[in-house]
Write a structure and sequence with these properties.
474 residues; mainly alpha; two-stranded antiparallel ribbon; 77% helix; globular
Length: 474
């Protein structure tokens, strides 16, 4: 049996077209996924009054939500590889909404952990990871810009959800606020419906080439023919649901270790900032507005950073650029630890918004650069799994420090030192890894396969056919 008359090319990222619609969906999903666990902190004061719990107890709600967002990465990768991005995202939107609606009827803090934490976090995970995979499918050359624009969804939603949450608390209480937030999360289903799979184009073989290919196969030695028959009799290899072989890449291992340290302290200031401001005597509305300041600055920081990351001289050094962002974010935390006035907190929010936006815009671009688009789904799932442990430890441990010492200054020092450590480690380890890779392997030479010989012949025949047409025209 000869080669088929029409075969499908591998899909190429269009860097536009329907990709812009996918980018809008990814913008919304990223906004809900990252902003929602922080915006929930607006409700913590009311929850502490109703359930008689402390800072560390309420901080667990955001931590569990973020831990599910990250820790469900491998499960999300498996479902995406088996069913595709769109069905997984539709399921995720329903789960996220159901979690917040159920949370509005809870009677103790443990039930909140299970509903708002576990169920909503799982739903956000089923939306977040597939949206990033689809974005990497539709964009290649413009990928840094696309990642920066999609990441801007986080600050936009943070600047909107935080004041909205305070308004809902004042008007309807935390139960009414949770119910309305659950309805808003149904928009994730709409975004999931936009994630149309990118299909390859059909290409037709030139006239006569198929017959030539069949004749060549018949003239080849019997060993090659037997190998060809054996290949046809074998079933096509099953697609791996989760490819652990990506962990052989030293660059990925370094990235995972750095990101684990990062998430220990990255979210701590934003989760505890509103409560800290309220304890300093700042009115509730003004305290909630601090998150909006971070979000507003972040809106411009992420796309700008994405544009810079796309420059030819920056893109090959993306890991070092990311390290600089981490170090600057850590310095912002450490230098702002003694701020107690509202104006000092506003200044902190401005600089934190810039550096936090840099981190958010670069983190997944660095990962895509390490493993490529083919290994990205599995690598992303594994990275998120390791990050989940750090997210689960970070904010509650900061809450324990506040409950024990009644001193918020410690959490800024803790978070800042973790970011500084991660930035220095990533830069140093990446430099050593790149130096070793330059003198590593030489390319392997493999024996040509029968199918490759045929494809090469098809290509040559196509070229000769085009040359003959040109001669006739001349």
């Amino acid at each position: 049996m000869g080669s088929s008359a029409a075969e499908r090319e591998a899909p190429r990222p269009p860097d536009g077209g329907w990709g812009w619609v996918v980018l809008i969906g990814c913008f919304v999903i990223t906004g809900f996924s990252y902003a929602f666990p922080k915006a929930v902190s607006v409700y913590f004061k009311e929850l502490m009054k109703d359930f008689g719990c402390g800072y560390s107890d309420t901080a667990w709600i955001s931590s569990i939500m973020l831990a599910m967002l990250y820790g469900s990465g491998p499960l999300s990768s498996i479902l995406v590889n088996k069913f595709g991005c769109r069905p997984v995202m539709l399921l995720g939107g329903l789960l996220a909404s159901a979690g917040m609606i159920s949370a509005s009827f809870t009677t103790n803090i443990i039930q909140l952990y299970m509903t708002a934490g576990v169920l909503t976090g799982l739903g956000l995970a089923f939306n977040f990871q597939p949206s990033l995979i689809m974005l990497g499918t539709y964009f290649d050359k413009r990928r840094p810009l696309a990642n920066g624009l999609a990441a801007a969804g986080s600050p936009v939603f943070l600047s909107a959800l935080s004041p909205l949450g305070q308004v809902l608390v004042d008007k309807y209480g935390w139960r009414g606020g949770f119910l309305i937030m659950g309805g808003l999360l149904l928009n994730c289903c709409t975004c999931g419906a936009l994630m149309r799979p990118l299909l390859g184009r059909l290409k037709k073989a030139p006239v006569g080439v198929e017959a030539d290919a069949q004749e060549l196969k018949e003239m080849l030695p019997s060993k090659g023919h037997e190998n060809n028959v054996r290949k046809k009799s074998q079933k096509p290899p099953k697609k791996k649901l989760l490819d652990f072989s990506v962990l052989r890449d030293r660059g990925l291992v370094i990235y995972i270790m750095a990101k684990f340290i990062v998430v220990l302290g990255l979210f701590v200031p934003t989760i505890l900032l509103v409560n800290y401001a309220k304890d300093q005597g700042v009115p509730d509305r003004d305290a909630a507005f601090l998150l909006s300041i971070i979000g507003f600055i972040d809106i411009f920081a992420r796309p700008t950073c994405g544009v810079i990351a796309g420059l030819d001289w920056v893109r090959p050094k993306m890991a070092y650029f990311f390290s600089i962002a981490l170090i600057l974010n850590g310095l912002t935390d450490v230098c702002s630890a003694r701020n107690t006035s509202y104006m000092g907190l506003v200044i902190f929010c401005v600089f934190f918004g810039i550096t936090y936006g840099m981190v958010g815009a670069l983190q997944f671009e660095v990962l895509m650069g390490i493993v490529g688009s083919g290994g990205f789904p599995s690598a992303l799932g594994l990275v998120l799994l390791f990050e989940a442990v750090g997210v689960l430890i970070g904010p509650p441990s900061a809450g324990i420090l506040v409950d024990a010492f009644k001193n918020y200054e410690l959490i800024f020092y803790m978070a800042g030192s973790e970011l500084l450590t991660a930035g220095v480690f990533l830069a140093t380890a990446s430099y050593c890894c790149i130096g070793r890779k330059k003198s590593k392997d030489s390319p392997n030479v493999e024996e040509p396969d029968v199918e490759e010989v045929v494809n090469h012949t098809n290509h040559d025949s196509d070229n000769s056919h085009q040359t003959a047409l040109k001669d006739e025209e001349s």
